[in-house]
Amino acid sequence: MSTTRRARDVEVIVISGLSGAGRSEAAKALEDLGWFVVDNLPPTLIKTMISLALAPGNDIERVAVVVDARGGRFFSEAMNELAKLRRDVCDYRLVFLESSDEALVRRFEASRRKHPLALDDRVAVGIQREREVMRPFRDGADLIIDTSEISVRTLRRRINSFFEGAQGPEGLKTTVMSFGYKFGLPPDADIVFDVRFLPNPHWVEGLREQTGLDDPVKEYVLEQEGTVDFFEHVKSLFGLLLPAFQQEGRHYLTVAVGCTGGRHRSVVLAGELCRAIVDKGFAAKVLHRDVERTR
Description:
Layout: H1 5-9, E1 11-17, H2 23-32, E2 36-38, H3 46-53, E3 62-66, H4 78-88, E4 91-98, H5 101-111, H6 123-139, E5 143-146, H7 152-163, E6 173-180, E7 191-194, H8 215-222, H9 225-248, E8 252-259, H10 265-279, E9 283-288
Parallel strand pairs: 1-3, 1-4, 2-3, 4-5, 6-8, 6-9, 7-8
Helix pairs in contact: 2-7, 5-6, 9-10
């Protein structure tokens, strides 16, 4: 498959990762966004399928292929096929979904499904086998999403934030995520800001039941002297970081902003930071992980 004009114009995503980590949900999310999705395709057929998608007369502009351990004996050939794909298609991304052992075991037990690499053994054994098999995919991924502590709905929102709409300058896309420390750090965050030093609206009468999406909370947080100083420094920092990440060839960046419960301060500042990044000419979206959680 030569690098034709069609190959330059078409976006290709390969979705890989651990069984039970959410590959199917990620594929469904992309399909809902208008991507042409092919699941469980043997690696030897990847080149043929992409060639058909790029054939003259087709109006397919975005293709997603799911590659996983179900490929059996064909799986060892997948890395070679994907290397060819990365060479031949200009806009190519490899997305890897992973999760903790504990979360994966819970999911398999809840669904009562057998692990594809542990048909006659414990689920935990299959998980470890699959981690070793999939290590080259993880090491070569452009984007890694850890689904250990996130819901299906949140995963779909994460996929939307990365792949909905057009790419930013040279492909750099940033997701700014608010979160609550009481619910744990986002495991796939590249940069984390702790804003718990700011006065907490939770202790202000009339603001506790509201969130950072409501104007009274926004006004309270943004009028604090500490907020002004902090945000000026952060904007200056990103004026340096974003061009550097872009020059280094990064395609995705996840910035997490955390407060105690993830409902007030972090929500306000994540929204402001997202707007600041867009104002600098980069693509960015905001995601509020814990804004709806109350305990």
